[in-house]
Design a protein that fits this description.
six-stranded mixed beta sheet; globular; alpha+beta
Amino acid sequence: MVKHFDLLKVDQPSRGGRIYPREIVEQVMDRINNDEIMVTLDSSDTLTVDFARLVGWVRNARIENDELVAEVEIHNTPSGTIVKTLLENELDLTLCTAGTGNVSKEYVVSDYRLAYCFISTALDSKS
């Protein structure tokens, strides 16, 4: 199963209030398109991926109307099956990023390095 998600907005506050400049969004897009970026179910307190929560892989990132969009290949893992069930029941899920970087006093992100993406309910997401 493949699902389309909105990921980041260019130069606009995210759900967590951070602002990702175009240069950073383009770097995230390139990393998704050139590396194997995992998708997990929910976030972690660390940048270590818990394979028990593996959902699949994020692919085909592109910028459309100043928003980074991507597709998630959802695999038949235990967490992937949970995500498929939630989508079949029309629960609003969100794809979020997890990585390292700097955030200025104005909440502008710089030196960002994407580690992985995670799926969460829209109400719980904070990226």
